[in-house]
Amino acid sequence: MFPAAILLAVCAFVLFCVYDSVKPANFPPGPRWLPFVGCFPRFYRLRSKYGYVHLAMRDLAEKYGSVLGIKLGKQRIVIVSTHELIRKVLTQEEFNGRPDGFFFRVRAFGERRGVLFTDGIKWSQHRRFSLRHLRSFGFGHRKMQNQIVTEAENLVKFLHNQSLRGPVPMHGAFDVAVINSLWLMFAGRRFDYSDQRLTEILQVTHDAFRLIDTSGGILCQLPFLRFICPELSGYKSLMTILRKLWSFLAEEINEHVSSLPADEPRDLIDAFLMEISRNESSDSHDQFNHEELLVLCLDLFLAGSETTSNTLSTMLIYLVLNPEWLEKLQMELSKVVGRDRPPNTEDRSSLPEMEAFLAEVQRSVFIAPLGVPHRTVKDVCLNGYRIPKDTVVLVNYYSVHHERLHWKDPEVFRPQRFLNANGVFMPDDFSIPFGLGKRRCLGEVLARNSLFLYLAYVLHYFDINISEKHGPPNPNGNDGFTISPKPFYLVLSHRNG
């Protein structure tokens, strides 16, 4: 009896291994799948070799094609490259889902909540609700631009005070200004640069983005590792980060609860709390409750701060590494704006070189090279391949922004590519830093205004030089969910005249 049981168990194990290694019919080509781990060993070697997930994916795509199929642990993943195919994916309803792995649920108390990693009716409802109320508090209007100007003025004061002490740490210099631009509309207040609690949370935010990659990381691919090696798998660090973020945001929400007005909301949190009260006894209570609000806060806090702040810091890296462009932009500002007033959003159309520089940084050093992961909501065909329902789909923006047939010399930093023969700024359809379709970045209008005004203010008020003590900054950032700049310091001095 006992040997028979062992034999049966062995047979079952072998059958499972065979089943786990078989690809679905007509699945996109890719490396061979191994039982339990899929392509993880090969992917890990490539990521270690190149240092970045998107470069590991590029290596595989060069061998297997622009629709690449892999399996990491239990996750089936398809990586789509080239402008034509990516446009199809981003504008096709079947690809508009979000993954449902361990990481995407643990951040939301085991459920699917918020606007960043959800789909379907709940996602549509919360997105519409958030946009409608954010607009009523200034989002996309003159009020928002005025708030960014105020933050730009505070940023200049902060950087000036920092510069008096020596070289300024620029890798996180924009963090507070960027989060304040959103937080005024979202929570009705701004943070002070000396707020130590915020400083700690912003560092926690940076840690979170470096801990997890675009696919959800090893905890989505091999979730059982959290029981075997909680520290090595990153599970312990992830939970520490999440508890700090939950606590910070819960405090903000509780402050609103204790002072909630009886009539008109002051900000988005007020509006959501009022919606919770209205729906307590209705079927909509599942969509509007305190857990949903906390995860919405988490989504907007993380997405609204990290990418814009990192892009601004990266722009300064490219300015000091390309000093001719630093000189060009400052001369253009002096010519158009003058020295008697600060820049404003109306100046933007008269600053084509500034626009070209912004576009080229976002093209050549895309902060989120694989975007936010998608999920197929039903079986779908792409480029002749069948992609089953619930497959994770990664959109390789990096491939579009470095497509050689279109850009000719994509590895070269050349803002002139966005200027025509008359020096007029010319947008390019192959540059899609905010995505396309229904999943296009929710905060695009805020991000575009912030990138322009914060950079324009810094260039208007400061001369910028490499610190002799610290040396030139490294343009190759830290890998993670986004690419974040490594610590770097610059010498800022107030511009005369």
Report on the structure:
Keywords: Heme, Iron, Metal-binding, Monooxygenase, Oxidoreductase, Signal. One of its GO terms (cellular component) is cytoplasm. Belongs to the cytochrome P450 family. Heme binds at residue 441. This protein has helices at 2-21, 40-50, 53-64, 83-90, 102-106, 120-136, 142-163, 175-187, 196-211, 218-221, 225-228, 235-258, 268-278, 290-321, 323-336, 352-364, 397-401, 404-407, 444-461, and strands at residues 67-72, 75-80, 168-169, 374-375, 380-382, 385-387, 392-395, 462-466, 489-494. It is an alpha+beta fold and 497 residues long. It folds into two domains: 24-95 and 375-437, no CATH class; 110-372 and 439-496, Cytochrome p450 (Orthogonal Bundle). The strands form three sheets. Strands 1-2-7-4 form a four-stranded mixed beta sheet, sandwiched between helices. Helix 2 (40-50) crosses helix 3 (53-64), helix 9 packs across helix 12 and helix 14 (290-321) runs parallel beside helix 19 (444-461). The model has no long low-confidence stretch (mean pLDDT 91).
Key terms for this structure?
globular; 497 residues; four-stranded mixed β-sheet; 9 strands; oxidoreductase activity, acting on paired donors, with incorporation or reduction of molecular oxygen, reduced flavin or flavoprotein as one donor, and incorporation of one atom of oxygen; signal; Cytochrome p450; alpha+beta; oxidoreductase; 2 domains
